[in-house]
């Protein structure tokens, strides 16, 4: 059995009952080293296999091999495993290679949800998730989505907004949005949500400072109705008060 | 203190530790009757105030009044309270009316995440959430978003896809998407995710039958790369296998 677990943003408090139970029942825990570290208190002295960044395919093969050997394997992903996590790759490999492994997916709280609760209520209306990493997606596809989302007035959650080698992506995305997004549009940033080094701030589209955004950050750009009140970022659902 | 809690799709197993703790600590639980019923086993003999559908503003005022009187109030929402839930309305009222209430938001697993894990891994690439309810949103805004999302090849999660008085909305949305969405595009539907009456099925954009979709359903339309394999709906992240 291979259970692919979304552990949420990082703290045990934000994990689901299912995720905790699945971790406790596992024989072996597989994951990116940051994530296996986050669940350490729950794992005890179980076998833990950590792999580094960009080792996703290797990591999935390892987990599938172990499960095929009869081990109860827990693969940990941050947030939800089905959102830019490992659920897809696991299912792709298992179905394509007809591997003899039962896969179970356990949902988690993804970064946008955790960040939103820390900022106020920015996701109360239609929104989209866009990853600004072009490692696996051609940049022109990303561009098209950024422009479409801004033009149609979606609230936008940027995953992987900025990292080494992709320092300029967030600034480029903001440039693409500028024809439709007013400079006063609220923007919220949360870094390392639910972890020890958590930081958050709210600014505007026009005053955005990209330099403090990194790969652990989630950036939420409001829609035309989003406002800031008492330090909170709020997108009205549309009720008349 | 007023804690606005996302209880997830319905089962205790999919609630976070934080949500369970907040419910246990509360003096009084406020919510839409279906949701207070879902958490009944956790609530014990606490005071429970249920209100009906379309009573959102009344419900929020009730919760805020009780919290201002010094009660520890838990307001329960299905999924995540910050996604088409009550978090926004609570913050709108509290900030506008300068109410003397401390509000805490507890994140939950929203319907799209729970549905995705039941269908396979359809949300592995950029996606958006669109509510097809025009109770609070002009239909032309919804139309614009549906078309933009289809044109930019987002995976789309439809919330409130179809209900009494809005029987035709999902069919209309599909019509709007047709210029960009191929008939073979996989579509997944999950009804009452995580609850006793849970149902799910996978079909295609061209063969979609709207009649069995209701207001407890979540509909996910894939992007151009989404495929069906072994009865699972998978959107590749882009890894070369």
UniProtKB/TrEMBL annotation, chains A, B:
Tetrapyrrole methylase domain mapped to chain residues: 1-208
CDD domains: Precorrin_3B_C17_MT
InterPro entries documented for this protein: 4pyrrol_Mease, 4pyrrol_Methylase_sf, 4pyrrole_Mease_sub1, 4pyrrole_Mease_sub2, Cbl_synth_CobJ/CibH_dom, Precorrin_MeTrfase
Keywords for the protein's UniProt record, in alphabetical order: Cobalamin biosynthesis, Methyltransferase, S-adenosyl-L-methionine, Transferase
GO molecular function: methyltransferase activity
Pathway listed: Cofactor biosynthesis; adenosylcobalamin biosynthesis
Lineage: superkingdom: Bacteria
Major enzyme class: transferase
EC nos: 2.1.1.-
GO terms of biological process kind: cobalamin biosynthetic process; methylation
PANTHER family in the record: COBALT-FACTOR III C(17)-METHYLTRANSFERASE-RELATED (PTHR47036)
Full protein name: Precorrin-3B C(17)-methyltransferase
């Amino acid at each position: 059995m291979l259970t692919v677990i979304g552990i949420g943003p990082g703290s045990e408090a934000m994990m689901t009952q299912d995720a905790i139970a699945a971790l406790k029942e596992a024989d072996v825990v597989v994951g990116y080293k940051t994530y296996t570290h986050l669940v350490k208190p729950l794992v005890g002295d179980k076998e833990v296999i950590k792999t580094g960044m960009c080792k996703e395919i290797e990591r999935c093969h390892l987990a599938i091999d172990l499960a095929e050997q009869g081990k109860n394997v827990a693969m940990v992903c941050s947030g939800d495993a089905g959102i830019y996590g490992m659920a897809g790759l696991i299912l792709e490999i298992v179905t394509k290679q007809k591997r003899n492994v039962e896969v179970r997916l356990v949902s988690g709280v993804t970064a946008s949800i955790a960040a939103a609760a820390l900022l106020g209520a920015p996701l109360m209306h239609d929104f989209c998730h866009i990853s600004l990493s072009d490692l696996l997606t051609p940049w022109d596809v990303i561009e098209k989505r950024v422009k479409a989302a801004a033009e149609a007035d979606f609230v936008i959650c940027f995953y992987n907004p900025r990292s080494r080698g992709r320092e300029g992506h967030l600034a480029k995305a903001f440039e693409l949005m500028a024809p439709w997004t007013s400079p006063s549009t609220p923007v919220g940033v949360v870094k390392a949500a639910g972890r020890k080094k958590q930081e958050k701030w709210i600014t505007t589209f026009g005053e955005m400072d990209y330099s403090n955004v990194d790969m652990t950050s989630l950036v939420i750009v409001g829609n035309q109705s989003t406002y800031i009140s008492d330090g909170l970022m709020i997108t009205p659902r549309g009720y008349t008060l």
